[in-house]
């Protein structure tokens, strides 16, 4: 017989060292089979993929006994050692040495926890298996972060958190891995920095207002404004030291002189000048007089992606800053640099949308619904409603009014309060009193933990003792009303989902007042000094209203039936003011020809293409259109110069032809007009 591929040698781990047994040499068939009690173990077998590779087989019953089973707990691949984090360090327990089987199974209450199990892909790797019910009990579950990172010397700054931690402190505070807010409360889940001095932070909001210090890089705006929407002005991100000092002096002069009624313009102006500071740092400027026209062009390139209105506002902020520095502003900022702003048409919610929103308000939290109803009724600006006082209901001569402060115009305004809106405000006052301390002075509050998936109940929504945020992304009322419109599939009269914003309630309410009571009532309701402000920016007439009034006059003036029309039959308003019914239509100057054509209407035009009309012998200019001709002439000159600069030959030839044609009659027309 040849040599065995796998010799009959078994290895047995012991507490000291492995034990090798050569069964071929040391075993002489002395073991009797425990299964049949008659045969003897004579044949050796080797299984390569089995845990116990060597076994011996009975020559009678042919059953096997394994020879290389591992001793439990000795040289295990995963030894039964558990690690437990504690406040003082890590505790390691060797269960094989220290555990004597004294634990009963917590599941069946009768069996003994005896066998060690290693669970490779589970969070709790080591477990004890019950001898009776065969269920596992984990031994190495991770200790939660709030246990081993517990900060016993810090209390929760959230005034609504009332639970006590293990040491009796307010809240359960523990450390987390976060650079800005490294601590978190286990009860109310807020994150904060206990060393923060920012007045808008959890900790800073409770700090007393310290004396103003010009040298600090964070200014508390409460020194200059009462209840500002943004409470800090930060300069730390401005790297250039001289530029930072100049900005501090500039903004201090603005704050002291109260140039702006609210902090919004201050914050926006600082954003612009901080962005300009990037150019200052990049070009390494050392003095305000180093600012040149080339620097301004670099700033224009930086603002290429801005909207027209945003870019116009930035240029205005820079112009004010340069005027304060006494620089040559007209050279740095040209008049042509300011883009023309075209204001969009006023948008409002139609009656169908408003009714649909009110019918579904019972599905959202009551404080949010009351916030919408009060803002919709008063037609107040979003910031004014967010900071409306708790005691906004006032009684004068037996009548009730809603009184609130208008931050934009810096004056008080009051509106008559109906019984329904009075009841809504009183319900909100009762809710505020039950939720916050008596010293909370606002009618509405901010909320946190508002998620779209929680609509419509929002069970995790928590009130905070501070006014609601004004911006659309963070205002609780605007966010929830938008979700209400989306989830309830609310659509306007055109079948389109309306876009709800915080300020749309003002124009919607004023449009409703104007339709029922007239423009004068809408002006008083909005507290506007001039009715034109109400008419242009909030309640312009609809196209249907313009058509119903103006189309009859236009039809009369056009006289399509070519009937005799005595001048006495013209409208009285037209006789008094010939421009009373003139429609102001904005048309690009290059797309229209001003004047008359002497050709017979039945004769086809030989050119039929602008701008060749101005060079045609049949064209008759009019002195009444002289300002329009001059505007066109100037525009064509600029167009020709630009086309020549960029090499656009077709546009250059077209503009040149128009200018040459207008030169033949424009000067003579100007002379006739001046006679």
TrEMBL record:
Keywords: DNA recombination. SUPFAM superfamilies: DNA breaking-rejoining enzymes. It comes from the Bacteria. InterPro entries: DNA_brk_join_enz, Integrase-like_cat_sf. One of its GO terms (molecular function) is DNA binding. One of its GO terms (biological process) is DNA recombination. This is Integrase. It comes from Mastigocoleus testarum BC008.
């Amino acid at each position: 017989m040849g040599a065995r591929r796998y010799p009959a040698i078994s290895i047995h781990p012991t507490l000291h060292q492995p034990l090798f047994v050569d069964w071929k040499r040391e075993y002489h068939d002395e073991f009797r089979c425990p299964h049949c009690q008659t045969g003897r173990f004579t044949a050796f077998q080797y299984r390569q993929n089995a845990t116990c590779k060597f076994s011996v087989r009975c020559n009678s019953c042919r059953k096997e006994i394994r020879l290389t089973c591992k001793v439990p707990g000795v040289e295990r691949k995963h030894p039964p050692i558990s690690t437990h984090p504690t406040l003082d360090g890590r505790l390691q327990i060797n269960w094989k040495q220290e555990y004597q089987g004294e634990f009963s199974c917590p599941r069946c209450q009768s069996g003994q926890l005896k066998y060690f199990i290693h669970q490779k892909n589970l969070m709790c790797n080591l477990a004890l298996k019950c001898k009776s019910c065969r269920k596992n009990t984990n031994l190495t579950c991770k200790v939660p972060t709030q246990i081993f990172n517990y900060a016993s010397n810090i209390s929760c700054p959230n005034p609504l958190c009332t639970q006590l931690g293990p040491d009796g402190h307010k809240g359960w505070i523990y450390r987390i891995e976060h650079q800005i807010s490294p601590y978190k409360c286990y009860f109310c889940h807020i994150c904060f920095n206990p060393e923060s001095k920012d007045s808008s932070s959890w900790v800073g909001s409770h700090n007393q207002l310290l004396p103003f210090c010009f040298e600090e890089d964070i200014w508390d705006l409460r020194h200059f404004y009462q209840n500002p929407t943004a409470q800090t002005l930060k300069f730390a991100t401005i790297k250039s030291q001289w530029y930072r000092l100049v900005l501090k002096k500039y903004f201090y002069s603005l704050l002291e002189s109260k140039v702006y009624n609210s902090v919004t313009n201050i914050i926006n102006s600082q954003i612009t000048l901080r962005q300009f500071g990037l150019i200052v740092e990049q070009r390494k400027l050392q003095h305000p007089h180093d600012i040149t026209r080339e620097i301004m062009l670099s700033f224009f390139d930086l603002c290429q992606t801005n909207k027209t209105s945003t870019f116009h506002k930035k240029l205005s902020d820079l112009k004010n800053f340069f005027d304060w520095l006494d620089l040559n502003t007209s050279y740095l900022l040209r008049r042509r640099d300011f883009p023309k702003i075209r204001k969009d048409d006023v948008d409002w919610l139609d009656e169908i949308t408003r009714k649909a929103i009110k019918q579904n308000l019972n599905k959202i939290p009551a404080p949010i619904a009351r916030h919408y109803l009060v803002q919709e009724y008063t037609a107040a600006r979003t910031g004014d409603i967010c900071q409306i006082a708790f005691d906004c209901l006032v009684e004068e001569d037996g009548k009730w009014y809603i009184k609130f402060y208008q931050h934009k115009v810096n004056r008080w305004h009051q509106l008559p309060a109906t019984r329904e809106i009075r009841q809504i405000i009183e319900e909100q006052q009762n809710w505020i009193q039950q939720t916050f301390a008596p010293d909370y002075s606002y009618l509405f509050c901010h909320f946190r933990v508002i998620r779209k998936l929680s609509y419509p109940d929002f069970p995790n929504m928590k009130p905070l003792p501070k006014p609601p945020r004004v911006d659309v992304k963070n205002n609780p009322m605007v966010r929830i009303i938008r979700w209400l419109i989306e989830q309830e599939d609310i659509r306007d009269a055109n079948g389109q989902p309306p876009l709800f914003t915080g300020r749309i309630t003002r124009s919607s309410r004023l449009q409703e007042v104007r339709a029922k009571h007239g423009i004068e009532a809408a002006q008083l309701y909005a507290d506007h000094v001039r009715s034109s402000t109400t008419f242009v920016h909030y309640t312009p007439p609809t196209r249907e209203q313009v058509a119903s009034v103006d189309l009859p006059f236009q039809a009369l003036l056009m006289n399509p039936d070519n009937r005799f029309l005595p001048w006495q039959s013209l409208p009285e308003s037209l006789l008094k003011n010939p421009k009373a019914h003139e429609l102001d239509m904005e048309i690009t100057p290059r797309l229209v020809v001003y004047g008359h054509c002497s050709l017979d209407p039945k004769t086809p035009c030989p050119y039929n293409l602008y701008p060749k009309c101005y060079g045609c012998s049949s064209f008759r200019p009019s002195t009444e259109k002289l300002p329009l001709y001059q505007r066109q002439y100037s525009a064509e000159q600029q167009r020709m110069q630009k086309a020549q600069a960029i090499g656009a030959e077709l546009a250059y030839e077209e503009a040149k032809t128009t200018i040459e044609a207008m030169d033949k009659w424009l000067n003579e027309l100007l002379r006739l007009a001046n006679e």
